[in-house]
Design brief:
five-stranded antiparallel sheet, elongated, 24 helices, 717 residues, 4 domains, Alpha-Beta Plaits, Multidrug efflux transporter AcrB transmembrane fold
Length: 717
């Protein structure tokens, strides 16, 4: 592989204009496809095959109506001694009825104390077809009540826009630019990873837009793909550019340096990218359509980032010439005077005190991870929205006026003989946490009944989950529980059940991949164990802040509670890919030095010397990108950004740069042991470039672009 990538690097450098023209043409084609084929994304979270999903289908078939049609709730409140009446709300109801795309508005229902009321607005089209202008028309209809001193808030999918703020991405790019400038000491070198990462993300986003013309993709798909594409795109280009500068400093000409950089660092990029792609594509094993779609879209964006790094980066390096080096090094013919970098000093310090470094790091991680034992999961609802949002205000007002369970009613469907009697109603009424059970409503044939159950607890509480299981456990034939709350409970349990198989597939495939890369049994085991430590620490930190509320004010968390159910799988998938990136970047160079004759400790120190600076810069960029999401108002986005930023920090600085060198030193030569029979079976993919080095030494291939020509390119570029 190293030889093939070496040739690709030289070709892209030498034929840089042709290479960039080909990529620009691809961008143009993708843009045209996105403009002509793209369709709206979906905000629905559905899992076919669950009890709630099957019951929802029965409701549509037996009772009619479009469950796909959009709806909203308008919540009215007064304070003091005032009371609400139908006459007070008649003007607002009339205005809502006249709003575009509205099919009907139900008469307002007033609470017992007369201070809270709500009206349900039904649309004639799905939520994806409700335009922003028509949404604003609904919101404007509430001005009539507001003018009379009545509080008006709105809830429902119609009230939520799919427009995403790009503040976090912009913040991440800005911080990345600063980190890259400090790392490279050159504006050109700092700008190159940003440019190529944006090219990769742009292509990935255009590809997703094209895919919406053929597939039903979740609205959050572009967010995940952008986050990961930007992060890994910068990281991979950073690694290749760093190696290229090292080859230039060693006295190689531009084309030869590009070939060697792509042949060695590029091999690490390929396998680092494959680990991320495996982790994302494996989301398909959950059997959850929206997760599978998000995983494949993000995996495709990462794959584009890898290809861009291997071809566009060396092409742009050809235009940059020696401007890629700091100004003080551009005129140097060979390697500048060697100073001991921080990575080497840190590595030697860890190896000298390896037991202390290992035990202290493990102790810190264990302390942080301990609260993860109390992890609780649930799907999001309006209770997790920003405190000052209209959705959250409507949720709180309904809970106060009608009870916490009013926001999460359960719909019970009964088929067959049980639908004719009151047995079901009596059985459910006798259960704990039940406030109200409405009288059964029969379909036209009279053999299917629908009841609504109002719990005493909120939709995300453990008591409501227990109630759903209790109703299903009554043993009544033909009974099923559905509704938004039951659907969310089923999704949460499906995600929990899929977690172990997902983790097993990701870890198993990555173990095989890392065994191919490092030709070792213990290094992949150590890499996987380190990843599990990082995930445990991330879970512990997020439970501490977002579930238990400790230090919540520091991060702007105003509401605590169960974490979103997709959080574990997202964290595992994303952190696993990034953790393996850092592992490959650090240990591949150590493997390269060991293969070339260095002792295990010297090889690890060399890996730290060459890789620690790159890993530190990459981690700081990742942390900054993810930490930007902590500034979001939405609790879910805030928690995901916090968990990813914390997990990357732990993995990069405690696991990869402290625990890894300590363990590698303790293992010594055993770290690189592989049974001979297995060594013969595994293909030799030459990630460390050993075969490439031998070929270059044997042929003594001269640089095809001598220093004089390179300097000329620098002058004219």
């Amino acid at each position: 592989m190293a030889t093939l990538l070496y040739r690709l690097g030289r070709f892209s450098f030498r034929r840089r204009r042709l290479t960039l023209a080909a990529w620009l043409l691809l961008l143009a084609v993708a843009t045209l496809g996105a403009l002509t084929l793209s369709k709206p994304t979906s905000g629905a979270f559905e899992i076919p095959g669950t009890e709630s999903s099957k019951a929802m289908t029965i409701l549509q078939e037996r009772f009619g109506g479009g469950s796909d049609a959009a709806s909203a709730r308008v919540v009215f409140t007064v304070s003091g001694d005032d009371k609400l009446t139908g006459a007070d709300l008649a003007g607002t109801v009339a205005a809502l009825t006249k709003a575009p795309q509205v099919a009907a508005v139900a008469d307002p229902v007033v609470s017992q104390d007369g201070q809270t009321a709500y009206a349900t607005v039904s649309y004639s089209v799905p939520v994806t077809d409700v335009s922003i202008a028509n949404r604003e028309a609904m919101l404007a209809a509430g001005e009539t009540a507001k003018a009379a001193g009545i509080g008006v808030e709105f809830s429902g999918e119609v009230t939520k826009t799919t427009e995403m703020s790009h503040t976090s991405e912009a913040l991440g790019v800005a911080v990345a630019a600063v980190v890259l400038i400090i790392t490279f000491g050159s504006l050109v070198a700092a700008g190159l990873p940003l440019l190529t990462a944006l090219i990769g993300v742009g292509l990935g986003m255009l590809g997703i837009q094209v895919a919406t013309g053929f597939l039903d993709l979740p609205a959050t798909t572009p967010v995940l793909a952008t986050m990961l594409g930007l992060a890994v795109g910068i990281d991979y280009a950073l690694f290749v550019v760093s190696r290229y500068r090292g080859e230039l400093a060693a006295g190689h000409g531009g084309e030869e340096a590009a070939g060697r950089a792509v042949g060695t660092a590029g091999s690490a990029v390929v396998f680092a990218g494959l680990t991320v792609i495996i982790a994302l594509a494996a989301l398909s094993v959950t059997g959850i359509p929206f997760l599978s779609a998000m995983g494949w879209a993000a995996a495709g964006t990462v794959a584009v980032a890898v290809v861009v790094t291997l071809s566009v980066v060396p092409a742009i390096l050809g235009f940059a010439g020696r401007k890629i080096l700091p100004r003080k090094h551009r005129a140097a013919a060979g390697r500048p005077a060697r100073t001991i970098p921080f990575g080497e000093r840190w590595g030697r310090g860890v190896l000298k005190h390896r037991w202390a470094a290992l035990l202290v790091s493990l102790g810190l991680i264990a302390a942080v991870a301990l609260p993860a034992l109390d992890l609780r999961l649930a799907m999001p609802d309006d209770s997790t929205a920003a405190v000052d949002s209209t959705q959250r205000k409507a949720y709180d007002q309904l809970a106060e006026g009608f009870g916490a369970g009013f926001n999460g009613p359960l719909v019970v469907v009964v088929e067959g003989a049980a639908a004719q009697g009151d047995t079901v109603t009596k059985a459910i009424t006798g259960l704990d946490d039940v406030v109200t059970v409405t009288p059964p409503v029969l379909d036209k044939s009279g053999d299917t009944a629908m009841l609504t159950v109002i719990p005493a607890s909120g939709p995300t509480s453990e008591a409501t989950t227990d109630l759903v299981h209790a109703i299903r456990g009554l043993g009544i034939a033909g009974l099923a529980v559905t509704g938004a709350t039951a659907v969310n409970i089923d999704i949460s349990e499906k995600l929990s059940d899929a977690l172990i198989p997902y983790l097993a597939i990701v870890v198993g495939l990555a173990f095989i991949l890392l065994m191919l890369v490092f030709r070792s049994l213990l290094v992949p085991i150590k890499a996987t164990a380190g990843f599990l430590l990082s995930v445990a620490a991330a879970f512990g930190a997020i439970v501490t802040v977002f579930q238990n509320g400790h230090l919540a004010g520091l991060f702007g968390v105003e509401t605590t509670g169960p974490l979103i159910s997709v959080m574990p799988i997202f964290l595992i998938g994303i952190l696993f890919g990034l953790a393996m990136d850092y592992e490959v970047f650090l240990v591949t160079r150590a493997r390269e030095e060991f293969v070339h004759g260095a002792s295990p400790d010297d090889a690890m120190v060399s890996g730290m010397r060459h890789g620690a600076r790159v890993v530190t810069a990459a981690a700081l960029i990742m942390i900054s990108v993810f930490a930007g999401f902590i500034l979001a108002d939405d609790t879910i986005i805030k928690s995901l950004g916090f968990a990813l930023a914390f997990g990357v920090a732990v993995d990069a600085f405690l696991v990869r740069m402290t625990i890894v060198p300590a363990v590698m030193s303790l293992l010594g030569r055993a770290a690189w042991w592989l049974p001979r029979w297995l060594d013969r079976l595994l293909p030799n993919i030459d990630v460390e470039g050993e075969q490439l080095t031998r070929q270059l030494a044997a042929h003594a291939q001269p640089d095809e672009e001598p220093r004089e020509k390179e300097l000329a390119v620098t002058t004219t570029s």
